[in-house]
Each structure stands twice: as C-alpha cells, then as structure tokens.
C-alpha cells in the first residue's frame, strides 16, 4: 500500500510539471510508465505519446511502449 501511495504521489507531482510548453520528455515518460504500472492504460499511453512529441532521446519511451504491447500480445505494435 505504501508503494502504491508513493507512486500515486509521484504521478500527481509529474502531472503538475507537465505542460504544453514543457520541452523535456522525461516527466512525460516517467508519468506514462507510472500510469501504466498503476493500471491507467489510456493515461499512460497518452503520456508516452507526449514524450515522443518532445525533443530528446526516446529509446526508453519506445522500449516502454514495446513492452506494453508485447505484454498484451500485440506484437505488430511492439
């Protein structure tokens, strides 16, 4: 329960940091991974997509998306 509460607090904190003018994809990536971990699939996928729209290295975001789709048997999307 404590770990879940910690993840929810962190996700809330990240959501406050992310704005339309935020150029850093790191918070979007982290929020996406956390949201997926918490079972918030749509929110997680939206944040990961937002991370990809920002400049920077997207290997970790692509890996997170690949793992998500692989776990669901959607190998063509992975």
Distance between the termini: 31 Å
Q: Counting H and I runs of at least 4 residues, what is the number of helices?
A: 4
Percent of residues in helices comes to 55-70%
Give start-end ranges of low-pLDDT stretches: none
Our Rg estimate from Cα atoms comes to 12 Å
What is the overall silhouette? flat
Secondary-structure element series: HHHH
Tell me the number of strands: 0
Given helix and strand content, the structural type is: mainly alpha
What does the model show?
- With 78 residues, the chain is an all-alpha fold.
- It has four helices and no strands.
- The termini are far apart.
- The mean pLDDT is 94.
Index terms:
4 helices, single chain
Write a compact overview of the structure shown.
This protein is mainly alpha-helical. It is built from 4 helices and no strands.
Question: How is this fold's topology laid out?
Answer:
Blueprint (H helix, E strand, L loop, with lengths): L1 H16 L8 H12 L3 H12 L6 H13 L7
